[in-house]
Design goal:
There is one protein chain. The protein is α/β, with parallel strands linked by helices and 220 residues long. Helices cover 37% and strands 17% of the residues. A six-stranded mixed sheet has the order 3-6-9-12-14-15. A five-stranded parallel sheet has the order 1-4-7-10-13. The longest helix has 28 residues. It is elongated, with a radius of gyration of 22 Å.
Amino acid sequence: MEEYTPRAAGLLEAYQRRDPAARSKLEILLLYPGVHAVFYHRVAHWLYCHKLKFPARCVSQWSRFWTGIEIHPGAQIGRRLVIDHGCGIVIGETAEIGDDCLIYHGVTLGGTGKDQGKRHPTIGNNVLISCGAKVLGPFKVGDNARIAANAVVLTGVPEGATAVGIPAKVVRIAGQTAHFADEVDQTSVEDPTQKMLEILSSRLDLLEKLLDEKFLEEKV
């Protein structure tokens, strides 16, 4: 029990640091579904690792019913994972999550089909995954990366990068812009698809202007 006490304290402190609505550790412990989901998962994962897979699934399904968060017992979760709201989160069997990550509601860490073996993503340390994002496949999301809201990530994301869009594209990389999971800025990111459409629109306007000028010259 002594091994888990510091972990629990660290988890509650992480929630207090990252959630401005959190008023006390007692409130977080008793009322936050993300905390309950992680505690249940610790039990389910222990059972899973000791070949007690049916009881492990029973615990995880109860957690899903109670919290709205579905974490397969086989998933590996690091320390101080903060799940904000949490409803609709799905984390697959071979998913791995590092330390100090922040995940919002509606996130899926899933696979792309019926492949065997490693089929879910590996999430590095201090990663932010915003609401509604889907990270699908057996690749790695590097440390300090950020996934924007509703992004669909199908390939690996470098360390310190920000991925945006469907399918997701990297729009920032550490060295140009540094950021951390505590810096919850989900709005001031560029949409690469929108940027490309704006470029195409400006070029189209230029072509139309040139055609109009040519037409006027020929008419004169």
